[in-house]
Write a structure and sequence with these properties.
The protein is built from 3 helices and no strands. It has helices at about 15-30, 30-50, 55. The longest helix has 18 residues, at about 30-50.
Length: about 90
């Protein structure tokens, strides 16, 4: 049989919540500790879904500035980066 770790820890509850836990412990003929442990086991999945304080209070991440890319000479397989319009020739109709 595994040994149980019996570390002591002080927990603070609002008075009305503590009274409710005590009533439930009496009803089930269990200790306050047992009731709180069972409540944790039942609720831990929901509690883990809650955002942490850091998630709520952290400012949203700043957008990353994108530096302009210098125009490079076009490669044979890529279209030119800048289109240049040719001036109309004198023999084309207007």
């Amino acid at each position: 049989m595994a040994t149980t770790d019996h570390r002591k820890q002080s927990l603070y509850f609002p008075e009305d919540m503590l009274e409710e836990i005590q009533r439930e412990a009496t009803r089930q003929d269990r200790s306050l500790s047992w009731i709180v442990q069972q409540a944790w086991k039942v609720a831990r999945g929901d509690i883990r879904k809650m955002p942490s304080v850091n998630d709520v209070l952290s400012p949203p991440p700043r957008p990353v500035a994108v530096a302009p890319v210098a125009a490079a000479a076009p490669t044979p397989s890529a279209p030119p980066l800048v289109a240049v319009a040719a001036a109309p020739s004198s023999d084309e109709p207007k």
